[in-house]
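[09:14] KT: can someone run the structure on this one? pasting the chain below
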Amino acid sequence: FVLRNNLYIVKERSLYVTADDGVNEPALWAIQEVSNRVGTPSIHGVAMCDQAAVIAGQDGVYVFDGSPPQKLSQEIQSDERNLATGAGPVWDQVNWGAGETLWAVLQTDRKRLLVGVPTGGATSPNATLVMQFSYGTQSLVDVTRYRLFRDAPLARGWVPWTIGANCAAAIARPDGSFPVFLGSNDGSGKIFELAEGTYSDDGRVIPAYYATYFVNGSDLG
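[09:31] RB: done, structure tokens below
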């Protein structure tokens, strides 16, 4: 991907940068290492916005704006258990043997990042991990300083969706919107639009759960 006139090269567990030196052919441009941890196994594992890239790989989900990459996925890699399944941190459930199938999409108008991943024994994405953030895309890196309450000035939150999709894209429409379209992996060949205010999934009930948390007196505002 290209960011601020630099060409970044993402490998499975590393990130490099190069740029046109104005003299040589691309094969002779100097290459420098940016990170020996941050990378992605998938050609669709990088999502772009105006001033940053989001990279999804085995070490986690990172945002990169030219400075050192910052992790966005700590909440789903922590010691907190996934209350929906009781199976532990949801990122640890990703089947990295099929990691080349994952995808990442930024829905900037909704301030939402979607990452499709294969979990358990799945060999194609059977879950969509969604991060909602409450800051503009130009400051996406700032949501690494997350807050507990949703009305805080900088905040993010992750939730697992049970949407299985082999691919996804935010596609520009004539009205200026960028809705997300999902390519189903159930063999139907259908393409679905992620529509706000829809309470069923192709006529089926959407499974849901709700988890509370303890609030002490000092947290009440």
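[09:33] KT: thanks! The longest strand covers residues 127-133.
[09:34] RB: yep, looked fine to me
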